[in-house]
């Protein structure tokens, strides 16, 4: 899979789930740990909306800001790390959301998170040396 395809797929997935945060914020509240509301002084709905907005913004950045691609990749990876405690909270409290309605699925989601971090970094990282060299050879100086 090329980095461009991986980046587009990541952006589409982020955008879709981000929009879902706005459409069905109630379903995402179970993922927000109580300590997050105390720490941020926001209620669970506000945290869900904010995380959805962040996902939509990251998706848009991945698609529209090619000069900032690496920074957005790192920001996306950092976002995946930041929401990981919510995934742990959901698993520990055994709370269901659409698609994550069993302990096995919730546990599997925990192992997916590091892969999402790696996906974000790989899809937005530097091109391989041979690909970069071919592009330099084709472009006029």
Keywords:
141 residues; mainly alpha; 7 helices
Would you kindly provide a written description of the structure presented here, covering whatever features stand out?
With 141 residues, the protein is mainly α. The chain has seven helices and no strands. The chain has helices at residues 3-23, 25-29, 34-40, 44-64, 69-93, 103-123, 129-138. Helix 1 (3-23) packs antiparallel against helix 4 (44-64). The longest helix is centred in the middle third of the chain and has 25 residues, at 69-93. The protein starts with a helix and ends with a helix.
The proportion of residues forming helix, as a percent range, comes to over 70%
Largest sheet: none
Instruction: Tally the helices.
Output: 7
The global form is elongated
Distance from first to last alpha carbon: 30 Å
Strand content: under 5%
Order of helices and strands: HHHHHHH
Low-confidence stretches: none
Indicate the structural class: mainly alpha
Rg to the nearest angstrom? 17 Å
Q: Summarize model confidence as the mean pLDDT.
A: 90
Q: Tally of extended strands?
A: 0
Nutshell version of this structure?
With 141 residues, the chain is an all-alpha fold.
Itemize the secondary structure elements and their pairings.
Layout: H1 3-23, H2 25-29, H3 34-40, H4 44-64, H5 69-93, H6 103-123, H7 129-138
Helix pairs in contact: 1-4, 1-6, 4-5, 5-6
